[in-house]
Amino acid sequence: MDYCQSTVCRRKVLLQYFGEELKEDNCGGCDVCLNPIKRTDATEEAKLLIKCVKELGQRYGITHVTEILTGSNSKKITEKGHHRLSSYGTGTYLPKDKWADIARELVYQEILKLEGSKYPLLKLGEGSEQVIAGNRTVEIKQLAPSKDSLLKSDKQTTREKLKIASKNELPPLKEIEAEYTTRKQTGKSNRIDAELFSRLKDLRKKVASKEKVPPYIVFADTSLKQMATQMPLNEKELLEITGVGEYKLQKYGDIFLKEIKEHLQGAPEQNRKQDEQKVVIERDQKEKVIQCIIGLREEFIRLTKEQLGTEASDEYIEKIWSEILPNKK
Fold first, then answer.
1. How far apart are CA 161 and CA 168, in angstroms?
2. pLDDT band at residue 151 using 50, 70 and 90 as cut-offs
3. What is the CATH number of domain 185-265?
């Protein structure tokens, strides 16, 4: 594992294993020396991992730790009450596989360590206290984009294409129908309120500045986007947002719920647009119903003539039809 995870000369690692030493840092022959690995600062991520491992009492493996950091709602997490930990959801800005990569890198650097053969548990290494105390900077090899992030970027491109050309224009009819259906079924929107999202980001920035932490420690963009979409109005609804656990609910819940409510109370223009959208939808649905009735009428006439043959005059069929659907021809 050390050999695979190493970001230094492969030959140097091999020689060290056999008790020998290579004085040069670059052997000029291995993949690491021929293609130097780009490094990136991961001190904040290391702190989050160390804090999570410590909160868990050093009794869980990499998978469980990454699920807590990414705000997983799995049965195991909720049953053990780990969604109430302060670490829960603090790492939603990265996918689980990237957190696992960082954890393994920290193991290689002896900041963390894995103990146990069948079910390895993450433990605090010798360098963990230095990182937490701010006396050590952590650098890791630059992470490659994950499959999840690539998919998200594709979806973002699609969303950009669906953007409204002007604020005064109504969205495409299909988008309105989807929005209307979702609201009717769930009472919630499936579209991000851009203005609310901006307000929530500003609020997050103020909170982060006050606490002297990076904004994503308060809430990741994923959480804010869900808030700007689902618009939770109470604690129960806020807990349904990804990355919001009991700890963050108690710490930030009130101020973020207040921001959402204030936005909704002061959004007459938004309500007006929603009313306009509803009118468009109802108009279109009415037209569809009329077309459906016309189609049914034609099918009714055809089937009646097939059954009764020449005995059924057009006047007779129209009379029956008018009795079924009065005033609908």
1. 17
2. very low
3. 1.10.150.80
